[in-house]
Amino acid sequence: MNSLALDAAPLEREAAAPVAAAKIRLSGMADDRAMLRAAAELTRDLQTPSPRIYWTDFLLSAALGYAALAGAILAPALGWALASGVVAVLALYRASLFIHEITHLKHSLLPGFRVGWNLLLGIPMMLPSFMYEGIHTIHHTRTRYGTVEDPEYLPLALMKPWTLPVFLLVSLLMPVGLLLRFGVLGPLSLFSKRLRRLVVGRYSGLQINPKFERKSPEGAFARQWRWQEIGASIVAVSLIVMVATGVLPLRPFLTYMAVISGVAVLNQVRTLVAHLWENEGEPLTVTAQYLDSVNVPGGFLPYLWAPVGLRFHALHHLLPSLPYHALGEAHRRLSTALGQESSYHGANYPTLRGLMARLATSTMKQRAG
To answer: Domain Fatty acid desaturase: where (predicted)?
Structure first.
């Protein structure tokens, strides 16, 4: 991905008011048709994913992550173990975020990638791709984004201040939840239709909306779900049994769980700034959805906390089928082609810190309500 210059407008906005940025009026916003037309026309040649880039990026990230995880387990000194743990979290976080690409890929253009990703990372980390497939695409549905039917949306900016630390705490406990989901509830649900409905509906998706309940899978997706769940359950049950019997010492087990927790927390932080979270449940136009989403195109740090193209999250909502490695070029083209009056520049922000401050300030305003 290219390193791009920041649009000046959001930089000036944050410099003038780094915390109390104005709320964008989303309800009833008309579409910026010039922006939508430019987005479609200027990126037609960028739509094909590169197998070489996908496989190389994923395999190198996973290999580095597992090597660093081994280092964190085996390092004799605490300092080296912690340093290795940080590298493991960052590398496995990047590798795990290919689950987002899997949900959007036309798999005929990248044969075997979903299977390879699940075998090498999804199943060993108890995070098979069915947990996101069939969930994330609803988030991109024109009439469901930001509504009660969206599994990946909560109006966090309009909620009480305590919701933000709770939001992060849930991710901290994610590896325990995955261990219970695949090591206990999943196998037990095979003997109870009622429990199975609960497991499928409530505990089989990476969702943040507690009101969302997913439907049972059908057809080819049901077959994908089945082998992925079996694999993740074998991993989870094996871990539980080996730890309980002393075959697996506590240190490697706890290190493995801590790394998964670190990946989950980092992803949850990214999620907090993926949108402005200012929609109150109404269906929105594509432009309004775009402006409720966030690009952080400049600097080095976004490559770490929003890798695999997710620093261009607003642009991704404009062009959800665009492969991650093409988003930088698409952003460059659109930034050059569209003037400052275009809505395109309104979703570009300079820093994670400024976005977190904006969100926290918004929740503080709800305290008196």
So the answer is: 80-340
Tracing tokens 């082609």 back to the chain, one arrives at 337
Q: Looking at this protein, which amino acid is placed at residue 335?
A: S
Tens digits of per-residue pLDDT, 47-81?
999 999 999 999 999 999 999 999 999 999 999 99
Instruction: Return the closest-CA partner of residue 204 out of 238, 180, 170.
Output: 180
Instruction: For residue 293, report the phi and psi dihedrals to the nearest 5 degrees.
Output: -110, 175
How far separated are the first and last CA of the chain, in Å rounded?
A: 43
Taking the C-alpha atoms of residue 98 and residue 179, their distance in angstroms, rounded to an integer, is 21
CA distance 178 to 240: 12
Give the span between the Cα atoms of 87 and 101, in whole angstroms: 22
User: Which amino acid appears at position 225 of this protein?
Assistant: W
146: left (phi over 0), alpha (psi -120 to 50) or beta: left
Residue 291: CB atoms within 10 Å? 24
Contact 335, 6 (CB under 8 A): no
Higher-confidence position of 17 and 73: 73
Predicted pLDDT of residue 365: 86
Torsion of CA 90, 94, 95, 100, to 10 degrees: 150
Residue 168 · residue 268 · CB < 8 Å? yes
Q: Which has more pLDDT, 3 or 102? A: 102
- 369 pLDDT band (50/70/90 cuts)? low
CA–CA dist 29, 155 (Å, integer): 18
Q: How far is the C-alpha of 231 from the C-alpha of 124, rounded, in Å?
A: 8
Q: Mean of the per-residue pLDDT values for the chain?
A: 92
- Tokens representing residue 279 in the block: 């929609």
Q: What pLDDT score does 25 carry?
A: 76
pLDDT tens digits, 314-337? 999 999 999 999 999 999 999 999
- How far apart, in whole angstroms, are the C-alpha atoms of residue 96 and residue 92? 6
Q: Give me the sign of the Cα torsion angle 274, 280, 286, 287.
A: negative
- Residue whose entry in the numeric block shows the structure tokens 């309940």: 213
Quote the CA–CA distance of 292 and 140 in Å, as a whole number: 13
Q: Which residues have a Cβ under 8 Å from the Cβ of 257 and sit 6 or more positions away? A: 175, 176, 179
